[in-house]
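Q: Entry one of two.
A:
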Amino acid sequence: MTTKGTLYMIPCPIADTNDVYDVLPAANRRIMDSLDYFIVENTRTARRFLSRAGIARPIDSLEFVELNEHTRSEADIERMIRPLEEGRSAGVISEAGLPGVADPGAQAALAAHRRGIRVVPLVGPSSILMALMSSGQNGQSFAFNGYLPIKEPERSRAIRSFERRAMTEGQCQIFIEAPYRNIKLMQTMLATLSPRCILTIACDITSPAESISTRSVEEWRRTSLPDMAKRPTIFILGI
């Protein structure tokens, strides 16, 4: 009977400006060195990450398959997982941060579980959790909501809904946005939220330009907004 392979969930740095091992444990390299098959969100960025990580195998000897918004069917994911049923191990790599968290790599992990394949998470940075841990907001009860609706009035309704949850349940609400829409989202939140709500803005987590600030909405309205244009940013709403 063939022993099944292992699916490793491999974090990568959030920012490209750091040395890989400034933010990842050196022990991760041993796992990466052992693999020649990777399920990735983007082949180009995965190759660049593995090259910067200094893995032992030549990059051109590795096999990459892409799992992202263009993956069309369950059959495509099954084909990606099949080598693991035959004994080959694989690594899942997101474009940044933790695979499977706000990331399509979760589909590979679920497919592996359904087939009795071991899934092993490696240690690495999550901008979501790093923003929360430095925010001063409620780390006992929180929800990650991904992206809010782009268009009005759906966006303002969503913001008010999460504000009610924060106020009634004490649960802080975490959002992300495409960097080029950060300023518009911030403006909408300041126009919509109660002055006493608490809002954390965390930009460029782990990079030298990292900026994390927590203020009430009333204080944000009186303060110059941080430079958020085109910067990866986490928003946390609480009371």
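Q: Entry two of two.
A:
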Amino acid sequence: MDDNLLLRVRKTPIQGGLDRQERADNVSLAFSVPRPERVAGLSVVLIDDVLTTGATVSECARTLLDAGAAAVDILALARVIRG
């Protein structure tokens, strides 16, 4: 486990009340992998507490893949279900 592989580099407003596209736009380019050599070729598992639209974990996964990770899997402890 390494909780420093992926860092937030841009403060983003709270996601509550935003629709799916607004959430994706809100977190776009908000994360960075400061040492890409530490993820190059590796399979990475991201753990999220609550998955709502998936915008944040999708952006995190994209960032890790762009940095050279071979694969990114996402585990969520809870999922928001909309009625």
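A: Comment on entry two: The chain has one domain: 7-79. Residues 7-79 form one domain.
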